[in-house]
Design brief:
Family: Belongs to the short-chain dehydrogenases/reductases (SDR) family.
Distance between the termini: 41 Å
Shape: globular
Strand order of the largest sheet: 3-2-1-4-5-6-7
Protein name: NADP-dependent 3-hydroxy acid dehydrogenase YdfG
Strand content: 5-15%
Radius of gyration: 19 Å
InterPro entries: NAD(P)-bd_dom_sf, SDR_fam
Largest sheet: 7 strands, parallel
CATH architecture: 3-Layer(aba) Sandwich
Keywords: NADP, Oxidoreductase
Helix content: 40-55%
Organism: Streptohalobacillus salinus
Number of strands: 7
């Protein structure tokens, strides 16, 4: 896809972070934009921003972990704009900690948003795109954490590896159908977002239980501190949207932002082929 003016983009997680940057980039390209986010106040801020840019915009409060709400997002998109051309499956959350320590409520929340939310978006919008038979593109937000793993974020890594695998599988399926739908999986390294404030976006059914010991544990508190550090020292977020849209124009599947991780990705593949046990020493070298 290299013609954007007048096309319709749908963006989940549009109230903050990458979602806002994608929304601004769409508006700059004279696209019509549908914004979705679980927090209505954040959603309204992005909506106001795009209206100031003279963008034709629709805001739909959406919890992507509930399929019915994602299906309603698709319905409202078609009712309002009559088509969908570009989908950013972007909403995501994180909780640090090893799998034997984090509460199962956190595991369920991460999987519901980061995996089910992507699947629900694909399920709701791909049939519409197939029926349109027009050139469409889908960008699923994963992470470098979907290509590499570290010791302390098991749930997040699992969800992002699942996003990469899901994206690859659907990409193969679109090719097999000879569909006019291209996919990309966005795998950024550390960027200055507010991902470390994910707890602000918990729906009621996944709220933190204050009596749960984990949230007072050294593991949790150190994980939060580490997350804040790596995000605050990440690359500026305003450098992201242009590279993503360039990848869309060039129909690139894997969208990476940090070349410094490429040798680690290569080593991971080499270790797989050679049957080498992954070593934690890589993180101290």
């Amino acid at each position: 896809m290299n013609e954007f003016s007048g096309k319709v983009a749908v963006i989940t997680g549009a109230g903050n972070g990458f979602g806002v940057e994608f929304a601004k980039a769409c508006a700059n390209r004279q696209m019509k934009v549908v914004l979705a986010d679980i927090r209505e106040d954040d959603l309204q801020k992005t909506e106001r921003l795009l209206k100031e840019m003279n963008c034709d915009v629709l805001a739909v409060p959406t919890d992507v972990s509930i399929y019915e709400q994602v299906a309603q997002l698709a319905t409202k998109t078609i009712e309002h704009f009559g088509q969908v051309d570009l989908l950013f499956n972007n909403a995501g959350v994180v909780v640090p900690g090893p799998v034997w320590e984090i509460p199962m409520n956190d595991w369920d929340w991460i999987m519901s948003v980061n995996v089910n939310g992507i699947a629900y978006g694909l399920r709701a919008f791909i049939p519409i795109m197939l029926e349109q038979e027009t050139a469409c593109h889908i960008v699923n937000t994963a992470s470098i954490a979907g290509l590499l793993t570290t010791p302390s974020m098991a749930a997040y890594h699992t969800s992002k590896h699942a996003t990469v695998a899901l994206s690859e599988s659907v990409n193969y399926a679109m090719q097999a159908k000879q569909a006019n739908i291209k996919l990309s999986v966005f795998c950024p390294g550390f960027v200055q977002t507010n991902l470390h404030h994910s707890d602000d976006y918990r729906p009621e059914r996944f709220k933190i239980n204050p009596s749960e010991p984990y949230y007072q544990s050294k593991t949790f508190l150190e994980g939060l501190k580490r997350a804040q550090h790596v995000i605050n020292t990440g690359i500026p977020i305003d450098s992201i949207s242009q590279s993503v849209f360039t990848a869309i124009e060039e129909e690139r599947f894997y969208i990476l932002t940090h070349p410094k991780y490429n040798p680690m990705i290569g080593k991971r593949v080499k270790d797989m082929l050679e049957g080498v046990i992954p070593s934690v020493r890589i993180f101290s070298s």
